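Listing 4. Sequential folding, example run.
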Amino acid sequence: MKRVMFLVLALLAVTAACGISSDNAPRQIADDKVPFGLLGPTNAAQANTVPGGPTVRLFFLDGTRVHEVFRGVPDLEPQTEQT
């Protein structure tokens, strides 16, 4: 009985460790952890550009598929105050 309970608890621990953890904020993923097809060039259209600002590449998870999206962001360089 103890062995069965130990095996069940060990299986639950391994299953929980393999799950996808939830994040409270975005985090960078190492290049070697990104699926191969996402690292290459893309033909996705760029959208939502901000004049004078850089364009960033974002990835969104839709169920089991990852979608690449381009978004424009304002230039975030600090402005010096002129007196």
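-- end of first protein; second protein begins --
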Amino acid sequence: MSLRNERLNQILTEARPKIARHWSLYDGGFGHGGTAAAVAGVDELLVGYFGKLKDMPDGTPATTILHEIEMLLRGLAEVNASCGGAYLETDERDLLVPIIIEAATVAGLDANEFKDADPTLQFRAKLLIL
């Protein structure tokens, strides 16, 4: 396994318990009116995102990595909509966005090329999520 993929595995392995702890702070462990399906959906989307990044060869164009960020955020927007639009908010942004950016950076994206070093911002604004 490449060092890049080892690092991606490490990021996800460290993030998942933090995310689970976050959900446990809210009603029934689901938070903001979420459901078990919503919690599982967020986890599934993150695992899929990391899998896509790990499958990319070294030197993958930034546009390809950005596409995966956009697809992840679209999926998160769908999960959020399924919970009345109030499931993924500021606290969740503060939790999830750094993980998304760190993984994209490990995959080869230069986050410093984006406003506030946040390549997710353009998609989050468009999708009105996080």
